[in-house]
Design goal:
Layout lengths: L7 H14 L7 H67 L30 H9 L1 E5 L5 E8 L4 E3 L5 E5 L3 H6 L7 H8 L7 E5 H7 L15 H15 L5 H11 L3
Antiparallel strand pairs: 1-2, 2-3, 4-5
């Protein structure tokens, strides 16, 4: 029987056909496992990276929040400490004031202290000086009168945008000072008291707050804003201590109660 002879051209065609029809050799299990492990490791690393970044972000946010809280607490502590520091000497000054019954109002007149609006030639009045001192962005005309500015009333928290809305208040009212010993002063000392820019006796407040206060003392009137009680009490005591004005028993109790807010 004779042998079948395949020409080179046919052999090449058969080789191509075989390569197309026959399946690819299977990947060894070890290689497949290696690829699967690599992919799983990559996914695990990506997830771990995401978790790490998220945790780092949380830690950064927590640290920032902690710093903000610490700074706010420090500011509050400084404010509280400053008020406490002012309350201690105020209590000592109050303890040194004479306690007595209020004197009669007989003979009192605002003119005995001379009005705040009295103008000296070529100079600002006391009212104009206080408005310029306590206001923001105050503009004055050639006569020293404020024509523009903004003022804050610590008694009731109002922001006043016209000087017509602003009163200059005597922290210790003139009539109250009269009954606390000022009736026995000389005219010069009464005028010095009414025009004192060095002690905390003159401040800008709203007209409505000034009307509500009138000539009352702390035993019958307190600022609407509780946050101002500490400053109000220390100012009252500072003025009375400087001018050696006495206090009543009820007045002293009211001042001590307000100092507890410091």
């Amino acid at each position: 029987m004779g042998r079948t002879v395949i020409s080179p051209r046919r052999a090449a065609c058969l080789a191509v056909l075989v390569s197309v029809l026959l399946p690819l050799p299977a990947v060894p299990p070890a290689a497949a496992a290696q690829r699967t492990g690599t992919q799983a490791a990559q996914r695990t690393n990506a997830q771990a990276g995401q978790r790490t970044n998220a945790q780092a972000g949380q830690r950064t946010g927590a640290r920032a929040e902690q710093r903000t809280g610490v700074q706010a607490a420090a500011r509050a502590e400084r404010r509280t400490g400053a008020q406490a520091d002012s309350a201690a000497p105020a209590r000592r000054m109050l303890a040194g004031l004479k306690v007595a019954r209020a004197l009669s109002l007989r003979g009192y007149s605002r003119k005995r202290f001379q009005p705040l609006d009295g103008r000296r030639k070529g100079k600002c009045s006391i009212r104009e000086s206080v408005l310029a001192r306590d206001g923001r962005r105050v503009r004055k005309n050639a006569s020293c009168h404020p024509v523009k500015g903004t003022w804050y009333s610590p008694y009731d928290g109002k922001v006043l945008k016209s000087e017509k809305q602003v009163d200059v208040d005597h922290v210790v009212p003139l009539s109250y000072a009269w009954r606390s010993g000022a009736r026995r002063w000389s005219p010069a000392k009464r005028r010095a008291f009414a025009h004192d820019l060095r002690r905390p006796e003159l401040i800008t407040v709203s007209h409505s707050a000034n009307i509500a206060k009138g000539g009352q003392g702390p035993q019958s009137w307190r600022p609407q804003r509780r946050a101002h009680w500490c400053r109000y009490a220390t100012s009252w005591i500072t003025v009375k201590h400087h001018y050696r004005l006495f206090v009543t028993r009820d007045e002293r109790t009211a001042l001590l109660n307000m100092l507890r807010t410091c």
